[in-house]
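Notes for week 9. Today we move from apo structures to complexes. The key idea is that a small molecule is not decoration. When we ask for a structure prediction with S-adenosylmethionine present, the ligand SMILES becomes part of the input, just like the chain. The input block below holds both the sequence and the ligand string. Read it once before you look at the output, and try to guess where the molecule might sit.
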Amino acid sequence: MHLLVLSQENLALSRAEALALCDSRKTLLKNQFLFLDISSNDVNRLRNRLALAKSIHRVLFSCPLKKLKEEMGEVQWMHVIRQDFAVRIHGKTNLTERELGGAIYKKLKRPRVNLENPASLITVFILGKRAFVCLRVHELQEDFQSRRPHLRAMNHPTSMHPRLARAVVNLTGIRKGTLLDPFCGAGGFLIEAGLMGLTYRGLDIDHVMLGRAHVNLGEHSLPSSLDVGDALKIQTALDYVATDLPYSLNTRKSDVKALFEGFMDVLANHLRKRAVVVVPLYKMKSTPAYEKMARRKGLRVKETFEQYVHHMLTRKILVLVHQ
Ligand SMILES: C[S@@+](CC[C@H](N)C(=O)[O-])C[C@H]1O[C@@H](n2cnc3c(N)ncnc32)[C@H](O)[C@@H]1O
């Protein structure tokens, strides 16, 4: 069993991202802690790709909190600890990290404590009256901040934060095959796909935008798999799609609606696996009934999420498959 500590800003989205990236036989969410029964392949995929999580841990054992100290003394810690170690407790208990560390210390031949940067971090999560004693597998430290759109060579105001862009790509569940962003703009989704080692293609009706995407991909030494074209005229099979439809507040509602409907036709005819489509929810105008429109075209809305952007705009994320 593994435990993921999820980002809390949008827990439903964080959970969905993690589940899309693994084939967990059992899952359980308690607060921001997601328990997963997963293979080592899944663990590797999660550690290489997750955007909306903080850390991954392997659960060594769990027990009633009142038995924690005693149970810590029963573990063959020499088989768990590499080089040096530290203990960290998350949650409320009268026990101290020092006390629990002592139980480990006694079991090792040459114990070495390293509070700063331990090779083995034992994390104890207290959830209600139970303790989950874990070994940290990975701390997620992807540097999204340095990839924020305004720091790119070619900025464009409609690009979203790379952490969210990566989560949208991951929601498609893609492991292999090609990801298409048919409204790719300055290339935010493509950069994240490329940095995760995925094959991608970008399409945009505006060649100036594609020029921006070309430069931005080049900054990361990623290939320019880009074409000028109209997303509404796609005639080829699509496996995975991640895209963000135009949503300038200057765009008339009827335009947004017509574009969305036209694109739902394309997905209904050509989508083979999964599409994640981001659309705007306006504060000042009535919003098109996206889910209804998608269903009417013969698509199944598997999940939806909302992500606040600013007081005038919230983004809606639709996960679509065939009915
Ligand atoms: C919201 S932006 C995409 C932003 C992008 N995710 C990024 O990271 O920069 C939408 C893009 O859709 C493009 N677009 C509008 N209508 C289109 C159509 N019919 N076919 C393809 N692209 C279109 C626009 O040129 C614009 O670049």
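The chain has two domains: 2-139, 145-322.
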